[in-house]
Design brief:
Number of strands: 7
CATH superfamily of the largest domain: P-loop containing nucleotide triphosphate hydrolases
Largest sheet: 5 strands, parallel
Strand content: 5-15%
CATH architecture of the largest domain: 3-Layer(aba) Sandwich
Helix content: 40-55%
Structural class: alpha/beta
Strand order of the largest sheet: 2-3-4-1-5
Radius of gyration: 24 Å
Number of helices: 15
Bound molecules: adenosine-5'-triphosphate, magnesium ion
Shape: globular
Order of helices and strands: HEHEHHHEHEHEHHHHHHHEEH
CATH topology of the largest domain: Rossmann fold
Number of domains: 3
Length: about 350
């Protein structure tokens, strides 16, 4: 990477050129900060690379700045309940208070044993005791889980969390996940309390703001920057990638235009996102995508002719892809890919299979 490239491809941390989804973000922040929150759980979902992790990180950062939230990031790969207990105990905002109260969780492998105190041997009791302290300190506990999946650990975590939620502890939860994973988490029998929690499907990032960012960074015309913004379709990863590649090219060729990097844009979209998206697709998803490209029109009736299936089947195929954020319904009877250059990607897949 060249020095000074303001675009970043690594995921997770909030990028320098960040196009805020202000409305969606503020809804969550306002709710969590409210004295009588209408929701204490939010799930962020959307296709790979749409910006879920970044949005969650940004929300955490903003809530942390209020000073009212104790924030714990739990890793889905570990034992969530253990991480919860251990992480809360060690949290810099709380640790001193727990020590002063002589909370002894040494039997659980958390902290050291404390003289003249009754050691706690049950992890949910340990968490409850710590939450009592959090509440007394007028703080709220926010748990953040990236890439939630329907695992045994998730179920164990969820059932404990729901008990604290029901008994009015100041516990908050934000989770991200691919639509199919979030769907499976919500439909898990033990996690029914999540059914009512709002799911926020990340919307495309704002065109005008993207255009302005490109215009300013590259000192290009409004028209050229507009064309670049269109080429990202509001896909967060696409926005960073296109800017990143143009920056790199301009280091070698200062008057390069985005047209010079289209091939590389396609290749890196595939490598960084589309190959994985394609692998996660079912056979019917692939049939529909290929038919959309072959029919060379978004018209549902043309696509149905191409596949030769019933309109009910087509409807099912279509709804699956809409839910996963791969296609959009574009007015009555029309669909389109929501991801940039995805048509070109599918074309490539077709030609490779032939
Ligand atoms: N609001 C935004 N404005 C500009 N760039 C963004 C924004 N959100 C995310 N990005 C960029 O998009 C890329 C993908 O972001 P992120 O990793 O958050 O996506 P994700 O939805 O969590 O993906 P995955 O499903 O693979 O975990 C990163 O390069 C990130 O810097
Ligand atoms: Mg992510």
């Amino acid at each position: 990477m060249s020095k000074g490239n303001p675009f970043i491809l690594s995921s997770g941390k909030v990028p320098h050129l960040y196009i805020d989804r202000l409305m969606q973000k503020n809804k969550i922040i306002e709710d969590f900060c409210d004295e009588m929150p209408s929701n204490q759980i939010y799930m962020l979902t959307g296709i790979r690379g749409c910006g879920k992790t970044v949005m969650m990180t940004d929300i955490e950062r903003q809530l942390e700045a209020t000073g009212d939230f104790v924030i714990l990031n739990l890793s889905i790969d570990g034992d969530l309940v253990e991480e919860w207990a251990g992480g809360l105990y060690d949290h810099p905002m709380m640790k001193r208070k727990f020590l002063d109260l002589k909370l002894d969780f040494s039997l659980l492998g958390i902290g050291a044993s404390i003289e003249k105190s009754e050691p706690v041997s049950d992890i949910s009791t340990a968490i409850r005791k710590m939450l009592d302290v959090v509440r007394k300190a007028k703080k709220k506990l926010l748990i953040a889980i990236d890439e939630a999946v329907n695992s045994e650990e998730m179920k164990r975590f969820g059932s404990l969390f729901s008990i604290f939620l029901r008994t009015d502890y100041p516990v908050y939860l934000i989770m991200t996940g691919l639509p199919q994973n979030i769907y499976s988490v919500i439909n898990s029998k033990t996690l029914t309390f999540l059914t009512r929690a709002p799911r926020i499907v990340l919307e495309p990032i704002n065109y005008t703001l993207m255009r302005n960012a490109y215009k300013e960074v590259f000192k290009i015309s409004k028209e050229e920057s507009e064309n670049m913004a269109v080429l990202t379709k509001g896909y967060s990863f696409g926005f960073q990638l296109l800017g990143y590649l143009l920056w790199e090219r301009r280091m070698k060729k200062p008057d390069a235009s985005f047209k010079d990097i289209l091939d590389e844009y396609d290749a890196r979209l595939a490598e960084g996102a589309y190959d994985k998206i394609w692998q996660d697709m079912s056979e019917s998803d692939i049939i529909l995508c290929k038919a959309m490209v072959r029919a060379d029109s978004g018209s549902i009736s043309n696509i149905r002719n191409e596949i030769g299936c019933s309109s009910q089947s087509l409807n099912n195929y279509k709804n699956r892809l809409v839910d996963r954020g791969i296609i959009n319904v574009k007015g009555h009877g029309y669909i389109e890919f929501s991801l940039p250059r995805f048509k070109e990607y599918v074309l490539e897949q077709i030609s490779m299979a032939e």
